[in-house]
């Protein structure tokens, strides 16, 4: 299905008409208590528990870790071919892995996040009913890892690619970051409050997600018979929402393939931008994803200019759309 009306019906899932349609392998890997397999009240409750450690306040304490990691990653970039997709993948895996899975069990920060996540999910709720079992905890840690890693990797890679291809946008974005850097006292580094004041970069991220449409379709299963735009849908059918056609609709986004972050200067029509989805299944990792990208882009544009080593616009035909060639570049100090 396509169109904003279909998006509204399918994503708000009004009157319980749809549930998420997870493919078989996803069900097996993520486990029966994953957020992606829950519906109705159980889904709402789990979302509430998961939302807390991923909220703006919950993420504040991981800012320094993410900031240092971005600086360390970028320290390694000069003098060699950089496959941006691979670097972004390692960066985002380290962030989420260190936060929730404790890849390095001795790390103090990781232990703190695990304790915190467990605390939020197990102890802070009102009653027995609101406590998660260890299976639920395991399934949902894995869910966050799977849902949050490739998506953020792809988004960061596309942002870097689109900025290079659109020099006017890069110049304006760099001005935003140079101004932030210039207003700092000597020697001090990026701060949490600076991250929360990067309006142009936020529009660049949105425009990137619109053009690239990292998740090109959202899948739902009909829980009842219903109709969209005169099209009769039967209970049990799978329905895919084609997000690319919504993001590239010339009636809403004139000249849709043009990279133009100013499209986000004004509020958009409802259900026309679905980079992080909408409704009860809207991405709970939106703050973390934006934080990682803003921090990384800040250090990148304040230190380097970069050029691609080949021209290739082809897209990897996977569930998450990425540049097929991993976007090889070389960087030079500004
Ligand atoms: C730029 C990066 C990201 C993009 C573009 C993105 C996009 C999306 C979209 C479009 C959906 C809704 C899919 C649907 O309605 O069928 C979604 C759901 C979800 N996302 Fe993200 N996401 C990103 C990062 C993250 C991160 C960092 C996490 C976790 C740490 C995460 C966890 C999830 C989860 C668990 C869901 C399912 C929510 C539910 O079913 O209630 N995502 N994401």
Number of distinct beta strands: 10
Task: Output the strand order for the largest sheet.
Answer: 1-3-6
Number of domains: 1
CATH class: Mainly Alpha
CATH T-level fold name: Cytochrome p450
Give, in order, the helices and strands. HEHHHHEHHHHHHEEEEHHEEEE
Portion in beta strands: 5-15%
Rg over CA atoms, rounded to whole Å, is: 21 Å
Q: Compounds present?
A: protoporphyrin IX containing FE
Structural class: mainly alpha
Helix content: 40-55%
Q: Compute the number of helices.
A: 13
What would the average pLDDT be, to the nearest integer?
89
Q: What does this molecule look like?
A:
With 334 residues, this protein is mainly α. The chain has one domain (4-333): Cytochrome P450 (Cytochrome p450, Orthogonal Bundle). Helices cover 50% and strands 11% of the residues. The chain is built from 13 helices and 10 strands. It has helices at residues 4-12, 24-30, 40-51, 56-59, 63-75, 84-101, 108-123, 134-165, 167-182, 192-195, 199-212, 243-247, 286-303, and strands spanning 18-20, 82-83, 217-222, 226-228, 231-233, 238-242, 304-308, 315-316, 322-323, 328-333. The strands form 4 sheets. Strands 1-3-6 form a 3-stranded antiparallel beta sheet. A 3-stranded antiparallel beta sheet has the order 2-10-7. It has a two-stranded antiparallel sheet with strand order 4-5. β4 (226-228) and β5 (231-233) form a beta hairpin. α8 runs parallel beside α13. The longest helix has 32 residues, at 134-165. 33% of the residues are buried. The model is unreliable at 123-128 (pLDDT under 50). The structure holds protoporphyrin IX containing FE. Protoporphyrin IX containing FE is lined by residues 20, 35-36, 47, 96, 143-144, 147-148, 151-152, 155, 209, 214-215, 218, 275-277, 281, 283-285, 288-289.
